């Protein structure tokens, strides 16, 4: 790959990861600060146990995410301002992806004053960094089919992670729903982090069937349990798209990757 092209792509990845973190961190921090008394049923002072848990997870994710990301952010900014220096993602990906995943826990908690548009903007920059990695892989001679399938699969998978919402169903269904949606988040976010790390390191997604199977079980259970109160069309659509895409293209890409 041309040195100049490599430098440009490296800086685009820096921008993608940095803006993901800065935007999502800012949105979550503002939500935590300003929605203590606002947000109706999602306000911390509403007295609902769900909100205490959601706020606690969000605050911990903000603190831990900042501690983990501040050093990579400083190093990436230094590389971004340099005309020749590249950020060594190959050796720094682990800490970076852990920070991305830790902050994502907070992003999956619906608190008062949550602004979905801002959150999706943040996720868009993360996806942009993934697309840049796809371009790098193709320019390095890797299979175009495997590279493109990998980034689409990871994008679809990331959208299947359910946001934790409040519920007013009768007990014990409400308790079961809360338990399942929190379990889904605390299992699927690390899985996505693992898949993202593998992808950023190799340029290819881990296409083992275990991961979409776990996603189908957990995200499907969240949609099913919430069905009588409200249909979560967003998660439902992306669960279907992910499964169909994996069965149609993911397994073929897995076979091609093994051969190549």
Shape: flat
The chain-level structural class is mainly alpha
- Main sheet? none
- Ranges where pLDDT stays below 50 over 5 or more residues in a row are none
Order of helices and strands: HHHHHHHH
Mean pLDDT: 93
Instruction: Report how far the terminal alpha carbons are from each other.
Output: 20 Å
Strand content: under 5%
What is the tally of helical segments? 8
Q: How many DSSP-defined strands?
A: 0
Oligomer: single chain
CA radius of gyration: 19 Å
Q: Helicity, in percent?
A: over 70%
Task: Please describe the structure with a list of short key phrases separated by commas or semicolons.
flat, about 0% strand, single chain, about 260 residues, mainly alpha
Write a structural description.
The longest helix has 33 residues, at 49-81. The protein has 260 residues and is an all-alpha fold. It contains eight helices and no strands. The model has no long low-confidence stretch (mean pLDDT 93). Helix 1 (3-34) packs antiparallel against helix 4 and helix 3 (89-107) runs antiparallel to helix 6.
Provide a concise account of the structure shown.
The chain has 260 residues and is mostly helical. It is built from eight helices and no strands. The chain has helices spanning 3-34, 49-81, 89-107, 116-139, 144-159, 173-202, 210-226, 233-259.
């Amino acid at each position: 790959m041309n040195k100049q092209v490599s430098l440009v792509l490296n800086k685009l990845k820096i921008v993608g990861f940095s803006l993901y973190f800065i935007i999502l961190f800012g949105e979550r921090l503002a939500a935590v600060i300003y929605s203590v008394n606002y947000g109706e049923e999602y306000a911390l002072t509403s007295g609902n146990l769900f909100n205490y848990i959601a706020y606690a997870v969000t605050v911990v994710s903000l603190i831990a995410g900042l501690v983990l990301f501040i050093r990579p952010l400083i190093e990436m900014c230094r590389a971004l301002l340099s005309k020749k220096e590249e950020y060594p993602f190959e050796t720094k990906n682990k800490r970076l992806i852990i920070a991305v995943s830790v902050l994502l826990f907070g992003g999956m908690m619906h608190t008062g004053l949550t602004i979905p548009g801002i959150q999706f903007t943040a996720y868009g920059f993360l996806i942009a960094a993934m697309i840049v990695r796809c371009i790098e892989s193709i320019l390095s001679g890797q299979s175009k089919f495997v590279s493109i399938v990998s980034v689409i699969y990871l994008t679809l998978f990331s959208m299947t992670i359910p946001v934790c919402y409040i519920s007013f169903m009768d007990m014990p269904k409400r308790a079961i729903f809360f338990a399942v949606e929190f379990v889904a988040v605390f299992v699927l976010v690390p899985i996505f982090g693992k898949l993202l790390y593998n992808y950023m390191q190799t340029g290819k997604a881990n296409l083992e069937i275990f991961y979409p199977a776990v996603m189908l079980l957990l995200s499907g259970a969240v949609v099913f349990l919430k069905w009588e109160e409200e249909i979560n069309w967003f998660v439902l659509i992306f669960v279907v798209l992910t499964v169909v895409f994996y069965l149609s293209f993911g397994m073929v890409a897995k076979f091609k990757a093994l051969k190549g």
